[in-house]
Design brief:
It contains 7 helices and 9 strands, in the order E-H-E-E-E-H-E-E-H-E-H-E-H-H-E-H. Helices cover about 45% and strands about 20% of the residues. The strands form 2 sheets. It has a 5-stranded parallel beta sheet, with helices on both faces. A 4-stranded mixed beta sheet has the order 4-3-6-5. The protein is α/β, with parallel strands linked by helices. Strand 5 and strand 6 form a beta hairpin.
């Protein structure tokens, strides 16, 4: 929606395994919205497309970008640095576009301080049992890492509630229902 007015900034957070990436990919398509470009020190995954959502950098390059104030927000998550590149987001918003950030809670809190009009979305799991099942079925992590992610999930849910940064909270049970609910709530927030 390039209409000459300031665009909408939406940031989405939630625990590992809750389906953030799947929700964000659908949301980007259905709204439509463009993804904010992030830099990360983690290794690329097979599903990653370099330059679409992430650029992969080493620790030194990441710290240089921090020193150059190139990030809107950045945080260390599960041993890797992640940061949202500032200029592409500002450019897209100035063109009236909707920009979507898939970030952790630390980043969400930073974003809402800089952009009070941004809309925070927190994706919740249907329950701990379901989250455990999803994390196991991903097949990416060892059992001790899954346990760490589950402990972290409880902390993140509490932190999101306390922060006040998330105007929309939705339980991701069935993808189509989750997307329909999110789009409805986003339209209500924009009125």
């Amino acid at each position: 929606m390039e209409n000459g007015t300031q665009g909408l900034l939406i940031f989405v957070s939630g625990p590992s395994g809750v389906g953030k990436s799947t929700v964000c990919n659908r949301l980007a398509k259905d709204l439509p919205a463009q993804f904010a470009l992030s830099a990360t020190t983690r290794a690329g995954k097979p599903q990653d497309q370099w330059g679409k959502k992430y650029i992969f950098v080493n620790e030194n390059e990441f710290q240089q970008r921090v020193a150059n104030n190139e990030f809107l927000e950045y945080a260390r998550v599960f041993g890797h640095w992640y940061g949202t590149l500032r200029q592409p987001v500002l450019d897209a918003l100035a063109m009236g576009r909707t920009v979507l950030l898939e970030i952790d809670i630390q980043g969400g809190i930073q974003i809402v301080k800089m952009f009070p009009q941004a809309v925070g979305v927190f994706i919740l799991p249907p329950g701990e049992e379901e989250l455990t099942r999803r994390l196991r079925e991903r097949g990416r992590d060892e059992p001790e890492v899954i346990e760490t992610r589950l402990r972290q999930a409880k902390q993140e849910i509490a932190m999101a509630e306390q922060s006040g940064a998330y105007r929309i909270k939705v339980v991701n049970r069935v993808l189509d229902e989750t997307i329909a609910e999110l789009i409805s709530q986003l339209k209500a927030v924009q009125r």
